[in-house]
From TrEMBL:
Source species, domain of life: Bacteria
Listed GO biological process terms: canonical glycolysis; fructose 1,6-bisphosphate metabolic process; fructose 6-phosphate metabolic process
Protein name: ATP-dependent 6-phosphofructokinase
Record SUPFAM superfamilies: Phosphofructokinase
Keywords: Allosteric enzyme, ATP-binding, Cytoplasm, Glycolysis, Kinase, Magnesium, Metal-binding, Nucleotide-binding, Transferase
Regulation: Allosterically activated by ADP and other diphosphonucleosides, and allosterically inhibited by phosphoenolpyruvate.
Length: 320
């Protein structure tokens, strides 16, 4: 394979730029030509495609967001969108595509693969909700950003002896809430993958108060419900004057951590190795600390992401 392209799609994630850099630099190192597609699948269909050279990916490893821009583009699920995308790739003489993104982006790569165009998926999303990998690019940065906010909120919560509900992103997955909650010593963590009982949450808050605890922090994954709704329901079990803090998109920005940059560099480089061998239809991941590639069709159709729910039990035992 002599000419490949890269796109980023779906919600941006810190470390996407490091992955773009790694794909481009490794491919150029291997004597290939690289093209960047702007605005994900929307740009692919529109033919918003440009040549990328070594200097174009300089000074980006430390930057959040994506220099290729991103978009959500449900139209790519249609036959018309997919055929148009392949037509554009053929027009530019592109023989392989690296897609960096989350769930929706992988489905686009899967569609291209089924139509015979070699695509490789690299998991890039703060949510960590992609099957075939233990970690996605952006997750480590996101949990560290949430952690910094938890630590800050704890200062003010303690000063006023208050309860806080901190709502975090994650779509339908509880990974961000779980990891940041354990790291931040949260009094309770509420995630979609584990049942919760509001009466028990209220009891935890009350017990803490009775023991003289000055703050109470509840980390809520957005996939359960929104923070204000949660506060209303909690009120039915006692008035704790809870404050709600929605961290939202703040968690998607910022400079990637060293861990995310290294992960992105490994994934990007490996994607080029695979395309160089003419292999497509794969998604890359890290499983038990090993970078691996698995069949994208099989991964998306038969595997489901599971967060490390043992963290939930751990938190119940050590944070109260
Ligand atoms: O997938 C990343 C994510 O940030 C989710 O955590 C969140 O639910 C969603 O994207 C928000 O999407 P948008 O930025 O399109 O509102």
């Amino acid at each position: 394979m002599k000419r490949i392209a890269i796109l980023t799609s779906g919600g941006d994630a810190p470390g996407m730029n490091a992955a773009i850099r790694a794909v481009a630099r490794k491919a150029i190192f291997e004597g290939m030509e690289v093209y960047g597609i702007n605005y994900g699948y929307a740009g692919l269909v529109a033919g918003d495609i440009r040549r990328i050279d070594t200097p174009d990916v300089g000074d980006i490893i430390q930057r959040g967001g994506t220099v290729l821009y991103s978009a959500r583009y449900p139209e790519f699920s249609t036959e018309e969108g997919q055929l148009k995308g392949i037509e554009q790739l053929n027009k530019f003489g592109i023989e392989g595509l690296v897609v960096i993104g989350g769930d929706g982006s992988y489905h686009g790569a899967l569609a291209l693969t089924k139509r015979g165009f070699p695509a490789i998926g690299i998991p890039g999303t703060i949510d960590n909700d992609i099957p075939g990998t233990d970690f996605t690019i952006g997750f480590d940065t996101a949990i560290n950003t949430v952690l910094e906010s938890i630590d800050r909120i704890r200062d003010t919560a303690t000063s006023h002896v208050r309860t806080f509900i901190i709502e975090v992103m994650g779509r339908n997955a509880g990974d961000i809430a779980l990891w940041a909650g354990v790291a931040g010593g949260a009094d309770d963590i509420v995630i979609p993958e584990h049942n919760f009982d509001m009466a028990q949450v209220a009891k935890r808050v009350r017990d803490g108060r009775d023991r003289g605890k000055k703050h109470c922090l509840i980390i809520l994954a957005e996939g359960v419900m929104n923070g204000h709704e949660f506060a209303e329901q909690l009120k039915e079990h006692g008035d704790f004057h809870a404050r709600v803090s929605v961290l939202g998109h703040v968690v998607r920005g910022g400079s990637p951590t060293a861990r995310d940059r290294v992960l992105a560099s490994k994934f990007g480089s490996y994607a080029v190795d695979l395309l160089k061998e003419g292999r497509g239809g794969l998604c890359i991941g890290i499983l038990n600390n090993q970078v691996v590639a698995s069949d994208i069709v099989e991964t998306l159709e038969s595997k489901k992401h599971q967060p490390d729910v043992s963290l939930y039990n751990l938190n119940h035992q050590i944070s109260y």
